[in-house]
Amino acid sequence: MSNTPTRRTFLAMLGCAAALVLVPALPPSGQAGRRPSSAPGPATGRPPAGLVSVDGWLLRSSDR
Amino acid sequence: MRVGFDALSDAGASWDVCIIGAGAAGLSLAVRLAGRRHRVLLCEGGDQTYSDRSQRLYRGAIEGDPYIPLDEARLRFFGGSTNHWGGICRPLDPYDFTAKRAAPVTAWPIDGAAVAPYRHAAAEILGATPIEPDRELPGSGLKRIHFSLGPPVRLAQQYDDVVRHSRHLHYCSTANLFDLETDGGRVTRLRIRDYGGRERSVRARFVVLACGGIENSRLLLWGNRRSAGRLVPQPVTLGRYWMDHPHATLGQGVVFDATRLGLDRDWDVFLAPTRRSLDERGILNCGLRLHRLAEPQTEALIEDLAAVAPALGHRLRGPARERACGVLLRAAWEQEPRADNRIELDTATDALGMPRARLVWRKSPLDARTIRRSALMLGDYLRVHDLGRLRLDPWLASEPVQFPTEGELAGRHHMGGTRMGHTPEAGVVDGDCRVFGQANLYIAGSSVFPSAGHANPTLTLVQLALRLADHLQARLRRGG
Lengths: 64, 480
Known about the structure:
The complex is a heterodimer. Chain A is mainly β. Helices cover 9% and strands 17% of the residues of chain A. Chain A is elongated, with a radius of gyration of 20 Å. The model of chain A is unreliable at 5-44 (pLDDT under 50). The radius of gyration of chain B is 24 Å and the shape is elongated. At the A-B interface, α1, β2 and β3 of A face β13, β15, α9, α10 and β16 of B.
């Protein structure tokens, strides 16, 4: 886990001992182009049974 | 005590140990040795506080994947990069010292037991809190892990009094190492320059370079060039096997019951593959971080999820909604140690006349496999056990992985370049951190790491520095 803010941040906060937790904002939510694709299993590259991937969401088939 | 640049001399006085660099490694080592009444000279190239003239010496070129500018990724003054670190600590996993199936080059010549005795003392120096033991999550291939999360200790402040008042520790700032002279088997003299172009010589029984994960390589490369290869006679790995921890946001998700993963107690939950998972999946180590999101973001995520999974969305709009929370998934993972990733001497020189550093750094197919399979392991665990659903960001959602080119990119954890090895062909230093070919030259810091695990390196490098203190003390007692 990164534990060093940028130098710019450092310069702005010189003397401050607070650790920063940098959390980027969520990307805008989109609803277009939802095509299911197989979700590769971690070890084999094949999708585990009953699991699918839709727009990056790792789902169960029954979720849909 | 502090000494001025003019007090440096090779006439008469010979130090037990001269340490170059007053960052986490150099300060820990210097204070430990001086506390045992050894005569220590600690040379810091920077000033007492930040200065542009010092920081500019860290500028360098970058080739390969996008990376943080070299003069922004570290700090060059008393206390070194501990002046801006975040205080996150965790020891390496014991198996990080071993040859991993995916890349046997990860093996260290020492095992975890060699540094374990120094963990408590290192944690005390760094203000690290006790860390709960890891706990496997059944059926996941993952384990829940913990970090000490700060607040960060500023070593410059912590050791200011010691440096001022110690009778055995002599500290000189604006003392930049420019050259190491060798008779072919021992470093005989150090040439030190200040910013005004003045030069002084120093002799010491033992010399330790503790200048960070880029400068240690740069100084040895430069010294080797000037000595026509007499400083590091077999520079096979010198500057090479350089590593950082790649960092990235992997995606978001919805956890159905925050209490099941501990997200009701903590805003951040950390997970990592088990050793068995690494072997089975052919990957390296990886730290996954689930960061709990606030309600509006959770609501937006559930809305997104419902759009692709209506049945699940319906369920999450019922009584289950109360227990659910959104999460942001981030990771820092172990980079494959590769000879091609390296520190070189650039053609441009700095204000002191030394070639600048040039970093060549690229992520590998194994780096891509490690992060994708680790993310899928978590995603599968959540959906198979119906604990939640993850949405991977587009760069990671399909193969080949397209790494982000902006954002955090890496942890600024500079490791390798003077890696530890069993032989001069396999490393620059031996298991005691001594440079092969030089009887009295040592390296302190994460540049000696042959592999990186996924944990922040500071605790481990301080453990190694304290271990080096014991080694040097034993040699000093034996008469060098």
